[in-house]
Each structure stands twice: as C-alpha cells, then as structure tokens.
Amino acid sequence: MKISPDTARRYLNYFEEAFLIHLLPRWGKTNEKLLSPKKIYACDLGIKHLFMGDRDLGSYFENYLYLKLRNNKELYYLYEEGNEIDFITSDKILIESKYNEDLNEKQIKLFDNYNAEKKLVIDSVNKLYLLDEI
C-alpha cells in the first residue's frame, strides 16, 4: 500500500474508533502486549463478508466467537514459540476456535501444557453452548 507504519496505525485507530474493527492484544507482560501485533476482528460480519466473500469460514467463526465473548470477558490471544491459541481471558480460560477442523500437533502441545483454569475447543456451531458456561 506504500504507506508508513504510523499512517497504518492511525488508520487502524480511526477504524476502531468508528466501530468498524476491534483490535485484540497479545497475552503477556506489558511490553509484549504493547509491542506485539494485534489481531483484527470485524465489528459486523456482514461488512466483513462484503470484503472477504466466502473464502475462509473459519475466520468468520473465530470472529463470531470474539463478538460473543468480548462483552463478558477481558480477552487476549496467546502466542508462544510460533503457536497461537485464539483467546485467553484475564481469568485464564483458554478458548480455541476451529470450524470443522482439529488442532495441529503444536497447538495441541501448547493447549495441553499451558496452565489455565479451563480449556475449551469450539469446533462447531453445536458447541457454542460451552461459552455460556464461562
């Protein structure tokens, strides 16, 4: 796009202030939260569909989970050693979104070994009820 990082950051802030997107910080120490890239979620899945089409249903599912969780929990994403878990809450609940998929081997290792109060894998619409229990 040939714009500076500062301009891109400013545009992202404009989009966030206009309620077009939400930015999700990384879980970790203060420096990790501030310096790590943030994940971007659309505020409206219909608008996302206008730009993205039907390309990646998994990203829509993850975005939907984010929108469902964001009002009840303080959310972050977990990133360690090149592996990512979609959501971790401030009260240490791990949530991985997989739309009709399985976790890969490295994600399973991070998911199983991470010290959390509760761990959820939401891999279909039929498991959305699990979110009501947290």
List keywords for this structure.
6 strands; alpha+beta; globular; 134 residues; 23% strand; 4-stranded mixed beta sheet
Account of the 3D structure:
- The protein is α+β, with helices and mostly antiparallel strands and 134 residues long.
- The chain has one domain.
- The protein is 37% helix and 23% strand.
- It has a 4-stranded mixed β-sheet with strand order 3-4-5-6.
- A hairpin with a 3-residue loop joins β4 and β5.
Name the beta content range: 15-25%
Structural class: alpha+beta
Please tell me how large the radius of gyration is: 15 Å
Fraction of residues in H or I helices: 25-40%
> Span from first to last CA?
41 Å
Oligomer: single chain
* Sequence stretches where pLDDT stays below 50 over 5 or more residues: none
Helix-strand string: HEHEHHEEEHE
Number of helices: 5
